[in-house]
Structures are given as structure tokens and as C-alpha cells.
Design brief:
Chain lengths: ~270, ~475
């Protein structure tokens, strides 16, 4: 009877990849490239500029390759693999100069770190380059905290914020505690918890337009939790979540808003030497 | 209850069911309360992170080893069970499985069946099949009993009636059984128990599921908390167990970590109240137990998943339900919205193999890929990765062969493909991309006020005055800060 099952290849069974060891970080480099991400480019450019300033404050020369566009994630998560691959290849070619790449977004950094491997799995030469890019890609908070080992000097007034951590930072990049640690360095900033803090804000790229009812219910809960936290402002290191959260707050006609962590840090600590 | 339970024919699609569920505040509150409690219980049960992660890795390895050996293990299982006196039946389809079960009952002239909880019997829609043949099937798991009484389907694989609160159950008991209204949960359970006790003694046949089928010893292991599983498998003269072919493991040593993962992930329990290990019918010198024991092994699309190395990982599943408990989508829309036997994240990746992607075209898209499901899965099924894979399969041309999943291509759209091609073009031509940025920022005042479904929940996005490309170029070229060493 079990001849039913002999057609398949029993030896192809996959096991889960071993837990990644804690990432080993290099010393502070002289030069980095900033990959701004398409959402920051068009909707939160000041966050990208503030990221550049924060890096420069650490004595790093920042390059912004003008040929950059999108990491390819929207097509990848929508199932359009070929289109995602073509866009990914353009970024892979562009960022091939060996410089560390800093990304002010967990999900785009996660695309470089984890999913380019899947996109180029069958192309040995590109796969090798994708692995190399993954090894020198850092999310901004990770880079500031672990590579630059920043010591932030808070120059602002006492202030309460809520922190929204993106799901990719939390579950893919393992950088979910980094933003917390950076904020904890600010003497006058108090981070307050909000309800269901680890829950997704409902963005999910094209999910937000494919399933607007469900996504809308999620962002409604998230914005209510953030507003109810007692914070004056929400901070996030991911512009995708911010576009979702701020767009919903504006629609709900609430004054409360979210801001990118880079802009917040620069406002609090800018100009310090 | 001796009449056929009307099956609700689903005429609506996933999105409209989700829409209705989201608008039901009672349903939303019931799920949120229940899922919050289940998440807390799981977290408490796995308080040591290193131990938890080590155990999950072990669980994954055991499941992978079992699957890599699946054909041989199934043969060994059949041989050992047969030697123990348990009759083994193989069914490729649910129709065959129902025929087998019906045949066994008919041979004993059975008219009354009492059931322990079994999701595979839900796949088979066994209750309806038997009701059509004048055989009464009574669910004995309290949650299953409640949904059966209300002519519903389970909304959760572990807690079938989790969509109802105590008040709703009380109203149901009052309406259907004439019981006095009471919101005391213990009292409600006693009511159910009183009715079910009698049925265990009257039943001709007991039906149950299986949590683990152990090949080396020919043992069927069944966990439960109400004692109904033990009653269903020991009181009636015939016991029929139904299960999927993926539930087989090598030996009892393999079961120990899997059992711990299962009970802690599902309800935060160190162990269930009952762990039944069934290794054969009543022996001549024994006083109790069934005279006949049968096992029906069901394929129902599982070999299709098995044939693909990536999708095979769906067969790791030990049916704990943790993925749905932690899913922000499931928590909001509830189990019935999925319209199939297995809801939630695991349902989205196993159902297509059973019924075809064309019957559940929206399932792979109904996820923000937040990763909460994969994070808690006790056997480390990469659920978000598999959802992404199903999305790929589902936007291919329906003419594309061979298909990795039956019914693939059900979301194929020439128009959407063209949109992504244009997106690709824009993002691979730097000059064009910058021209787009220039236009979007320059003419930001002309940005549309309504942007499809986005503006149902958000205000229309307005591009910044200047793009980061512009700001960065100016900053880095004119500002000496661009090179801190000068």
C-alpha cells in the first residue's frame, strides 16, 4: 500500500537551519554605503538624511550610491520572484564594492541578509555575491550600537515615547532589542510599553491592500495601543510600519504620530562631538 | 440528533467572511481573550528560552527524520500493529476512508458511534457521511459536542468551540437541551458530561484520532484532558482510529520530546490529564477494552506535499495550534473565516494540498508575514517561507506544469503581472527611477487623494518635497561633513 509514497524522494527532507550564533561585528569602518530604501526615499527622506548625519557624527564617511532604488521586497513577498530577482540583481551589482551597507529599515535589511540567498539560490556566482552582501549589511540600530558602539548624549527635555519594533527586526534580523538599548542611553527619554507590543502593525507590504479589512483592523488596534500608552510620540526604526501607522492616524484625525528613530536620535543628540 | 447535520455550503469568499467576522464585536472579544490567555500559558510553560529552543530543534529533527523515512516507517507500523491485533486500512481519499469506516460499522451492525476528538474525521466529514447512512455520530469532546449541537464546525483545532463564551454555551444548552441557564463553566461541563456518559455505554463503535503512531512498538498514542478519549477507545466494543500518514514516528523515545512540545505549546500544560497508549484489542484474559481495533491511515493530499522538499515541511506539524493562538490575523477573524477544516497559519499551508489552491485562493495572501507563527512552531515549520512559496505558485499561469500544489495559478492575473513588470522596469533603470522621484516630489500636490484599498484605512500618502536621493546628494557634495577627516 505504501507504494503511494515511494515516488517522492525521501532524502530531500529538510531540517530547520541551526540557530544563528550571535553575529560577530567588525570594528568601525571608515566608509559605509547607505541604502536608503524606497519608502524613506519618497516619504521619509529626512530620516535617511538623519541616518547619514548620525553615521557622520561617528566619524564615518557615508556614500549614497545614486543608482539605488528598491531592494525588491514588494514583489518577492507578493510571489513575483522573477521581477524581484531583476530588481535585486540591480542592487547587488550596485553594492558590490565591498563597503559595509547600512539600511535604516529592518525589513529591507532582512531582504539583503536573508532573502537574496533564496532569490539567487540557483546562480552560484550571484549567490556568492549575495552571501557577501548579507555579511556586510547592517540595520542602522545594529550598526550604531554594535559596530560604532555609540555613546549617545541626550540634549533634550524629559520626554515619553513608545517604541514600535517591526516584525522583521524582531523575528528576522534579531535586532529587536537594539533600538531599546539606544533609547535607553538617552537620559531624559522614558520608553513606555504599549498593549500587545510584539504584535504586527498590519502593514505587511501588499497585504495592506490585498486584505484591507484585516490590515485595517490590525493598524486600528496598533494605533490605539500606541496612543493609549501615555507616550507623546511613537518611534520606530522601520519606515514601512511608520507609513502604515501614520497614514492610519491621519485618517483617524488624531494628532499623535510616529517618527523614525534616526530622526529622533539626531534631534536629541545632534551636534554632539 | 439522529438526523443529518446540515452542512453549511460556503457561498462567500474568504474576504467577505473576514469582513463580517471583523464587524462582530462579541466574536472579536471571545478570540482576543482566549488567544491572549493561551499565549500567556505557553510563555509560562517555556520559561527557559534555551531549553525551549533546544527542544524545538530536537522536535524538528525528530519530525524530519521520521519524514525522511516515511515509507519504511509506515510499513513497519503496519506490520507491528497487525502483529498486535490492530487492523490497518489505507485510504488515499477521504471518500475511501469513509467507506472503510462505514464498512467496519456495518459489519457489526452498528447504529451509534461515539467520537473522541479527531481533526482527520473532520477532513472526512465523517459525521455527515455516517448520518446519511442512518448512523448517529456523537462528539464526546466538550468543545466538539458544543459545535455539533449548534450545527457548526470547529473554529480551532484544539479548542473547537473557542469562538463561544460561557454565556453563549449556556444559551445553547438551554435552547437545545432545555437546561437551566447558567454561566458557571463547571456546571455547564457537568451537564455535557451527564449526557455523554450514557452515550459511551450505548455506543456500538468508538472513533478517535491519533497524536503519534509509533512504528517500533505498534502503539497509537492519544492525548486528551477530558477522559472522553479513553472512554471512546475502551468502552464500545469496536474502536476505529483515523489519522494522517504523517503522524508516524520511529519509537517511544521520539515521543517524549514531541509530547512535551505538543502539550506545552498547545495549552501550556506540562502533560495532558490523559495519555492513552493503545496497543491492541482486549486479550482473552483481560476484563475490558474493545474487541476490535482498527487504524485508518489517510493520505488526502499529504503525498503531494511530501513530493516537494520545501512543502514537505508542512508534514512536520503535530497539530498543537500554537500558530493560530499567536496569529494576529486568526485572532481577529476567527477560525470559521478560513472556511476549511484547518484554520490559521497551519491551515493556510496544509489546506491547499488537501483541496487545491483554487479552492482557497486567498489563503496564502491573508498574512502580513509577521513571523509570529514560525517563531512559536514547536517543530520549526518555516510557515512564512511556505506562505511566500504558495504565493509564488499561485500567481503562475494556470497552464504552468508541473504544479507543485494542485490548483496552483488561481491568483494568476495578466494585469498584476504587468504592474510588477513595470515596477521592475522602473527599479532597474536608475535614470528612470530618479525621473520618477523628481516627478513625484515636484508634483506632490497632484498626488491622488484616493489610492485603492490603501485609503480605506489611511490618508493618501503625499511624497516629500525632496527625495532622499536629492537630499543626500546635496548634503554629501556641498557639506564638508561628508568627509569628517577633512
Amino acid at each position: 500500500m505504501s507504494e503511494l509514497f515511494y515516488d517522492a524522494a525521501p532524502n530531500a527532507t529538510r531540517i530547520a537551519p541551526a540557530r544563528a550564533p550571535e553575529r560577530a561585528y567588525p570594528g568601525k569602518p571608515e566608509d559605509v554605503s547607505l541604502f536608503g530604501t524606497c519608502v524613506v526615499d519618497l516619504f521619509f527622506p529626512e530620516a535617511g538624511l538623519d541616518a547619514i548625519r548620525l553615521l557622520e557624527q561617528q566619524g564615518i564617511r557615508v556614500h549614497f550610491p545614486q543608482q539605488q532604488s528598491c531592494c525588491g521586497q514588494p514583489a518577492w513577498t507578493s510571489g513575483y520572484r522573477d521581477e524581484a530577482r531583476a530588481v535585486a540583481l540591480a542592487q547587488l551589482n550596485l553594492l558590490d564594492d565591498g563597503r559595509p551597507v547600512v539600511v535604516p529599515s529592518g525589513s529591507c535589511a532582512g531582504m539583503f541578509r536573508h532573502h537574496y540567498r533564496e532569490l539567487f539560490a540557483d546562480e552560484p556566482d550571484n549567490l556568492r555575491r549575495a552571501e557577501a552582501l548579507a555579511a556586510r549589511t547592517f540595520e542602522l540600530t545594529e550598526f550604531l550600537l554594535k559596530v560604532c558602539q555609540v555613546k549617545l548624549v541626550d540634549r533634550g527635555q524629559p520626554y515619553k515615547i513608545a517604541l514600535h519594533t517591526s516584525c522583521t527586526a524582531r523575528r528576522e534580523m534579531n535586532t529587536h532589542l537594539h533600538a531599546r538599548e539606544l533609547l535607553a542611553q538617552l537620559d531624559n527619554v522614558q520608553r513606555v510599553d504599549h498593549d500587545h507590543e510584539s504584535e504586527c502593525c498590519g502593514f505587511g507590504g501588499t497585504f495592506s491592500v490585498r486584505m484591507p479589512d484585516i490590515s485595517g483592523a490590525m493598524v486600528l488596534d496598533k494605533t490605539a495601543a500606541l496612543r493609549g500608552s501615555g507616550a507623546a510620540e511613537a518611534i520606530s526604526a522601520d519606515a514601512g510600519c511608520l507609513m502604515n501607522i501614520n497614514g492610519a492616524l491621519e485618517k483617524q484625525q488624531h494628532g499623535f504620530r510616529g517618527r523614525h528613530l534616526a530622526s529622533f536620535l539626531w534631534e536629541r543628540c545632534g551636534g554632539a562631538e | 440528533m439522529n438526523q443529518r447535520i446540515p452542512v453549511t455550503e460556503l457561498t462567500s469568499d474568504f474576504k467577505s467572511r473576514a469582513h463580517d467576522a471583523l464587524a462582530d464585536p462579541q466574536l472579536r472579544a471571545n478570540f482576543r481573550t482566549a488567544m491572549d490567555s493561551l499565549m500567556r500559558k505557553r510563555a509560562d510553560a517555556f520559561s527557559d528560552e534555551a531549553e525551549r529552543e533546544g527542544l524545538r530543534e530536537l522536535g524538528n529533527l525528530i519530525r524530519a527524520r521520521s519524514l525522511s523515512n516515511l515509507p519504511d516507517l509506515l510499513e513497519q507500523l503496519e506490520a507491528r500493529l497487525t502483529a498486535n491485533g490492530i487492523k490497518v486500512h489505507w485510504a488515499e481519499t477521504t471518500a475511501q476512508a469513509n467507506e472503510i469506516v462505514h464498512g467496519i460499522i456495518e459489519a457489526r451492525n452498528g447504529r451509534q458511534v461515539v467520537k473522541g476528538k479527531s481533526m482527520v474525521s473532520e477532513e472526512m466529514e465523517m459525521n455527515d457521511y455516517l448520518a446519511d447512512r442512518d448512523i448517529e455520530c456523537l462528539e464526546s469532546d466538550m468543545g466538539e459536542y458544543i459545535v455539533q449541537l449548534d450545527h457548526e464546525k470547529p473554529s480551532h483545532i484544539i479548542m473547537p468551540a473557542i469562538h463561544k463564551n460561557a454565556r453563549q454555551v449556556s444559551q445553547l444548552f438551554n435552547e437545545k437541551l432545555g437546561e437551566p441557564v447558567s454561566e458557571d463553566v463547571d456546571e455547564l461541563i457537568q451537564t455535557g458530561r451527564r449526557i455523554l456518559r450514557r452515550k459511551f455505554l450505548e455506543a456500538d463503535v468508538g472513533v478517535s484520532g491519533v497524536n503519534f503512531a509509533i512504528a517500533e512498538t505498534g502503539t497509537l498514542l492519544l492525548v486528551e484532558n477530558e477522559g472522553n478519549g479513553r472512554m471512546s477507545t475502551t468502552a464500545p466494543p469496536v474502536h476505529i482510529a483515523v489519522t494522517g500518514i504523517e503522524k508516524v514516528v520511529s519509537n517511544l523515545r521520539d515521543v517524549v520530546p514531541l509530547l512535551s512540545l505538543l502539550t506545552r505549546s498547545a495549552l501550556g500544560q506540562p502533560i495532558t490529564t490523559y495519555v492513552n497508549m493503545i496497543s491492541g484489542p482486549r486479550k482473552p484474559d483481560e476484563l475490558d477494552g474493545p474487541e476490535e481495533v482498527h487504524l485508518v491511515l489517510l493520505d488526502n493530499g499529504r503525498t503531494g506535499a511530501f513530493a516537494d522538499a520545501q512543502l514537505r515541511q508542512t508534514l512536520n506539524c503535530i497539530r498543537c495550534g500554537a500558530c493560530m493562538n499567536h496569529c494576529p490575523v486568526y485572532t481577529r477573524v476567527g477560525g470559521h473565516t478560513y472556511g476549511e477544516v484547518y484554520p490559521g497559519p497551519i491551515g493556510k499551508i496544509v489546506t491547499p494540498h488537501m483541496v487545491g489552491l483554487d479552492r482557497v485562493p486567498d489563503h496564502p495572501s491573508a498574512s502580513s508575514l509577521c513571523g509570529a507563527c514560525g517563531e512559536v512552531c514547536p517543530v520549526k515549520i518555516p510557515i512564512p517561507e511556505l506562505l511566500q512559496r504558495l504565493r509564488q505558485e499561485n500567481v503562475q499561469s494556470p497552464q504552468h506544469e508541473p504544479k507543485a500544489v494542485k490548483g496552483a495559478g488561481s491568483k494568476y492575473s495578466r494585469k498584476e503581472r504587468m504592474i510588477w513588470r513595470s515596477w521592475q522596469w522602473l527599479n532597474t533603470q536608475p535614470a528612470l527611477y530618479r525621473l520618477f522621484l523628481w516627478g513625484a516630489t515636484r508634483f506632490r500636490g497632484l498626488a491622488p487623494k484616493r489610492v485603492g484599498p490603501w485609503t480605506e484605512n489611511h490618508s493618501a500618502p503625499v511624497p516629500a518635497r525632496r527625495s532622499l536621493h536629492d537630499l543626500a546628494r546635496d548634503h554629501l557634495s556641498t557639506n564638508a561633513v561628508g568627509d569628517p577627516r577633512t
